[in-house]
Amino acid sequence: MVSTEPTQAQTAWHAQDADAVVSALASDRQAGLTTGEVDERRRRHGPNEIASEPPPSTWSIALLQLKDPMNLMLVAVAVVSIVIGEIPTAIVVAVLVGLNIVLGTRQEVKARASVDALAKMQTPQARVVRDGALTQLDATELVPGDVVQLEAGDIVPADGRLLTTATLETQEAALTGESAPVAKDPQTLGTIDVSLGDRSNMGFQNTSVTRGTATMVVTETGMHTQMGQIASMLSAVAPSKSPLQRELDSLTKVLGVIAWTSVAIIVIIGVIRGQDVTTLLLLGISMGVSAIPTGLPTFVQAMLAYGARQLADAKAIVKNLTDVETLGATSVINSDKTGTLTMNQMTVRSLYFHCRWYTVDGEGYAKSGKITHVAGEAVPDFTLLAYGLCLDSDATVSGTGEVVGDPTEAALVVLAAKIGVDAPLTRRTYPRVAAVPFDSAYKFMATFHHLEVDGRTQFVELVKGGPDVVLARCTTAFRPGRQEVPLDEVREELTAANRTMSEKGLRVLAFAVRRLDGQEEAAVADPMSYVADLTFVGMVGIIDPLRPEAIESVRTAHEAGIDVRMITGDHAITASAIGAELGLGPGAIGGAELQAMTDEELSAALPHLHVFGRVTPQDKLRLADIMQKNGAVVAMTGDAVNDAAALKKADIGVAMGSGSEVTKQAGKMVLTDDNFGTLITAIRLGRNIYDKIVSYIRYQMSKLFSLVLLFLVASIFDINDGVALTPLMVLFQHFFITLFPVAVIMLDPPAPDLMNKPPRDPQMPIANRRAFVQWLAYGVLQFAVTLAAMLLAPGEMSTTEANVPMTTAFVVLSFGSILAGLVMRRDPESGLTPPILGALKILSIPTIVTVFAVEAGFLQDLLMTTSLTGGQWLACLGWSLIIPIVVEAEKAFRRRRHLHSAPPAPMTAPAAVDPQRAR
Fold this sequence. Notes:
The chain is of the alpha+beta class. 49% of the residues lie in helices and 16% in strands. The protein is elongated, with a radius of gyration of 36 Å. Residues 1-9, 110-123 and 904-919 have low confidence and may be disordered.
């Protein structure tokens, strides 16, 4: 017996004769496999199902969260606090660590069910010939060599070589992206190098049979099928960290260096001074708590969660909070065509009837729409065409747009409805007397009926098929007014019309008739012989139309500096026409040309390529990978199984809500309304959230620098025994003061010009040089004000009892943080411009909390604060007001300098945007 081990997945079965394939698989056309052979093959190949990845356990995810550098530093602080008896500090820090771990784990505990979803798509039943008898069994029981029978409505249970077919067509959009059904026949293909979508003698697992019947020998099962290979790609694609995660990791390392360097300096100074170990450890804890952004993970999580809720309201569901920020950095959108940019509903757009052009409006399978023509022409009699549309097809379309049957035929039924003809009623009134079923071998369909034509009943043949095939069987054609002329008089016109529609990416079908009064018996006996001497009626141009919002969404993306590319399984000519209608950039390429290019050649050509046709799942994955290596943040949209691997590879995989379950599981975001425009809305929200994160980190880092400087200076110059504030004072600031300025930043409305800016450079980290200088400058400002207030406050300083200078420093730091949050919520715009009332209401809460921390007895005991007089409160407020005044003055200076140095606005539209559309 010939082995069909994993190497068979690379066998070019489509290039081998059907009998040779059966022989290679040691099977039999008529008898199939024996029970013994099946058992032996199942032991070798396993069941016909997709293997799934075991999801990570909750505990393993929690452990990863604990290993985060920020949390490890906090754990060290808690341990040291316990050692020296600072139990309240240890408890508060431990609670914070637990909160960080719980929040992080909740978001990561999402079953990566991409492969599981593929397994769930497995067809439950299949009709198989075994031991010479036809039997029905679970599709998971199939093995290579099984002979399977297929008919319309079936889901293909495994990959296989077709042995016989009768008018077979399959819908392969889920696998290849091809929107129209694919005609199949068992003829051997002459070359090995044939793209997946063109392997017309193969059936593929989980594609659907829309027409006809077939017999197929199974060549691959389980993980060796095309679906299995996609599952393998999903398993191989490791989820990458988002840009924000990478930047926060980098920032954490910087902060760690600052924190532990500062602690080391303080400890060395303490040792030189001969301070006892407990005091040194207390200083170290205070310094550590000051320098570690204890609230950073929690607050960033909260801001991202707020963004996720906004996205959900906009019908975009993100699975992980960090994906919210990734959206804001998107610089490239790779979009699938079928069902994403288009409606996945075949529609007649153009009609050439009796040598005259007509335009058909209306979208999708809605039966509303008009057929318009040139002014001054008589309204034509569409009777013969309407007969062909209804009677030369089998599909049905309900009033709600639900289709049963071939999508292309559904488009013809809808066109008939727009003419005013009811297809089901017409079929019942004029049943078929004889028929030549469609077959890819001759590419036409013919039916014979008794029809009402010119006021009397006639026996008429109706023919539908490819224009070249139908024209070759015609001898005459209709001109306006149903004037019948020799075909040669109008052949050039008809050929030009066919070419015009094809160049627009339309799928063209031609219709012809023949009157056969008196020849009924002969026609019924041999209908094929009468598909000749036809009279040409007309042609229709069919396309999967664009979603109404797609063109506007592409224009908005271009204005935002985002490159949009269309990647589809359709032929390049169709894809190119759609791309031109969308207003994409220049350049179209087919899958074969793409595969012939090296990665270096493709990378160099990418700026000039915006439409990719006839691509495979591997091509989509490769394109995403190359774009990411070039520094792009890639969003990939799609709704079919063939998009899944690329969606998982992309920085932000965007699945459509009506798409396959595997695609929704592989993607990082799901558009519940299938609206490509919602992606642009999501990017706008993502940019806004990123701006808010930058504002928050600016605010947080400024305060951290001020605390670090305060503790260093206090230690170096032995101010208050080297302890500027107690550890609980610092934690109180983090928990109960900074929380409210962060809320102000979160709720601030987005900038009006948010989508007129180019995407941010993902290579430019949050902690870049300019930002770092700004954080340090603002931190020095807050430190200087707090230190001055402490040194000039009356009273003795002591770390063992409450004192006025330390309390003054605490109050000035609190008030300064509150006012800093107000002015730092925007940059470089002023933070004092409307809306401001809501912000002031929120900031009144930490102001009151600060008063309680100083004046309430139980908080005085906990924090080591003491009551202040009215004059001391006014002094604290005066010191605090210096901070917003200086920050606003610095921003005003930057705005003025930018205004004077900015180049004049360009007088022309951006190159990526069509000026006509821009208007």
